[in-house]
Structure formats: structure tokens, C-alpha cells
Design brief:
Structural class: mainly alpha
Oligomer: single chain
Number of domains: 1
Distance between the termini: 14 Å
Number of helices: 4
Number of strands: 0
Length: about 100
Amino acid sequence: MSWILLALAGLFEIGWAIGLKYTEGFTKPLPTVLTVAAMVVSIVLLGLAVRNLPMGTAYAVWTGIGTVGTVILGIVLFAEPVTAIRLGCIALIVTGIMGLKFAA
């Protein structure tokens, strides 16, 4: 169950990271409220997950999920560049997340 909570926390991290772009510097009320709500949910879920998972592992996985998801959505939503180096780095992060999951 802790891994599910952690995965959900990572998804909400992606949500708030992408949401930051839509707040336009926190000047748009609805995107701002949704972004802050996603931040709170993400942190709460992370807090629940670390009750049963090592903190270092959970934090690294949480940020890894957020990083990979945000980069991918940045490519899809905001036409950010797709390069071999960026994709290779994403693969390294995913490999690290999987390694931490199996080592925990």
C-alpha cells in the first residue's frame, strides 16, 4: 500500500509542477488553487508512504516520478525539445527509481 501511496504522491507532484506553468506566476486563481491543492495532496501522500518506507528511498522515488513525468509532459504540452540526451537522462532516472524500489 505504501508504494501505491508513493506513486500517487508522485503523480500529484507532476500535477503541481505542470500546474505552475498554468498559474502564470500565481496570477490566475483557478490554476493557482488547483496547483496548491496538488502540492498539499502530494506532500500528505508522501508523508503517509514514509511511515513504512525508508525516507531516502521514498523521497528519491517521489522526486524521480515527478521529474520524469514533468519532463515528458513538458515535451507533450509545451513543445520542449526532444533530444537523445534528454531521453537518455530520463531512462537513467527510471532505472534509478526501479533500483531503489527493488532495494527497499
